[in-house]
């Protein structure tokens, strides 16, 4: 399939694996790229820029296809060493960066001078237009359904994607709730040039996370995610568990007076305990509503091949037949 996204990133299929904390390691990113999509290493999961360089080297040993690095610009005072992480990306010859979180304007000149293509992830048309105006090459539009941070506007993809298509000039992928050929064909119909998946890629053979996490997603339905941290305007969609229910109770009790310090037990340092140790009640971890559509654990290659084959069938048979009859 050829779209503006496959052309831009020089990949076979218009399918991207979004950056995921403690999930987006070399093993998963290389598997996605080898299967013809775009695999992305999560920069901030690596504790130092040196560690990121090592992870990129490892990934490059596993694939000769394009890979990307996610840089999430967090709204914190004590910011990570972003300049160092960007130097690692440049030095290791990675040519694609997925930015997320705060506006990446500060880093754009350096990224562009070094020939890096930037895809920025955001959850509103106004943020997408802003990113386009500072020169990003593409956008990843994350609807309200998404695992992770859906923003504060709560616009689902059925509205957000056609709105983005009406306003944007640069190519964009649909993100949030994507799992199969139906997601891809619907997204293309609404004006996107491909899809970005997070939660779906967690339940693959190559995803380097604890089996308990994969099983929890397999067991979950579309009713099992919750929105946390809304009162501090850092909304995150997570899979419900004991810690999440406790966190929501605290939010109810403390109301708008709640501070980050009140909930650190439920949200700080959670990812390694969940993803590596498989401690499923350790705290809140991102998961999309799409959990309700995930019922198996294929290899990444099987998943991507299935999406592409069934997408072609959907277009050629189901849709084409409807027009002809
Ligand atoms: C476990 C998990 C961790 C995530 N961590 C990050 C992250 O560190 N940075 C980021 O930009 N997005 C992160 N995301 C968001 C994904 O990149 C992607 O945008 C989102 O999962 C898409 O929604 P979906 O899960 O419905 O496919 C994370 C998502 C999940 C499920």
Please explain how this structure is put together:
The chain has 325 residues and is of the alpha/beta class. The protein has a domain at 4-203: TIM Barrel (Alpha-Beta Barrel). 42% of the residues lie in helices and 14% in strands. It is built from 14 helices and ten strands. The protein has helices spanning 4-9, 26-34, 49-62, 82-91, 108-113, 125-133, 157-167, 181-189, 199-202, 211-219, 242-254, 264-267, 270-276, 300-324; strands spanning 15-17, 39-42, 67-73, 96-101, 117-122, 138-142, 172-175, 195-197, 225-228, 236-239. The strands form two sheets. The protein has an eight-stranded parallel sheet. The model has no long low-confidence stretch (mean pLDDT 97). Flavin mononucleotide binds at residues 18-21, 23, 42, 70, 72, 100, 121, 142, 145-148, 175-178, 196-200, 285-288, 290.
What order do the SSEs take from the amino end to the carboxyl end, as H and E? Answer: HEHEHEHEHEHEHEHEHHEEHHHH
Report helical residue fraction: 40-55%
Euclidean distance between termini CA atoms: 26 Å
> Biggest sheet, strands in spatial order?
1-8-7-6-5-4-3-2
Give the tally of β-strands.
10
Task: Kindly provide the radius of gyration, computed on alpha-carbon positions and rounded to a whole number of angstroms.
Answer: 19 Å
């Amino acid at each position: 399939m050829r779209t503006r996204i496959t052309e831009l990133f020089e990949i076979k299929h218009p399918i991207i694996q979004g950056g995921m904390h403690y999930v987006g390691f070399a093993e998963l990113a290389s598997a996605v790229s080898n299967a013809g999509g775009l695999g992305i290493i999560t920069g901030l999961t690596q504790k130092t820029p040196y560690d990121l360089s090592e992870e990129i080297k490892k990934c490059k040993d596993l694939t000769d296809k394009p890979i990307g690095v996610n840089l999430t610009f967090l709204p914190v005072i004590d910011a990570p060493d972003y300049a160092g992480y960007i130097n690692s990306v440049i030095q290791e010859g990675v040519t694609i960066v997925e930015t997320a979180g705060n506006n990446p304007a500060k880093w754009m000149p350096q990224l562009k001078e070094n020939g890096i293509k930037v895809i920025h992830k955001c959850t509103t048309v106004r943020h997408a237009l802003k990113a386009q105006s500072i020169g990003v090459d593409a956008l990843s539009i994350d609807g309200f359904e998404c695992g992770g941070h859906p923003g504060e506007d709560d616009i689902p993809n059925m509205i957000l994607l056609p709105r983005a298509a009406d306003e944007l000039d640069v190519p964009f992928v649909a993100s949030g709730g994507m799992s199969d050929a139906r997601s891809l064909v619907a997204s293309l119909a609404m004006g996107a040039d491909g899809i970005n998946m997070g939660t779906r890629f967690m339940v693959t053979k190559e995803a380097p996370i604890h089996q308990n996490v994969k099983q929890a997603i397999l067991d979950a339905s579309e009713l099992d995610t919750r929105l946390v941290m809304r009162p501090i305007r850092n909304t995150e969609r997570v899979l419900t568990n004991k810690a999440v229910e406790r966190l929501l109770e605290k939010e109810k009790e403390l109301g708008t007076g709640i501070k980050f310090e009140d909930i650190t037990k439920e949200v700080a340092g959670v990812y390694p305990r969940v993803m590596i140790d498989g401690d499923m009640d350790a705290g809140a971890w991102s998961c999309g509503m799409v959990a309700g559509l995930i019922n198996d654990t294929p290899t990444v290659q099987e998943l991507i091949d299935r999406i592409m084959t069934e997408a072609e069938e959907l277009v050629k048979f189901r849709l084409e037949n409807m027009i002809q009859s």
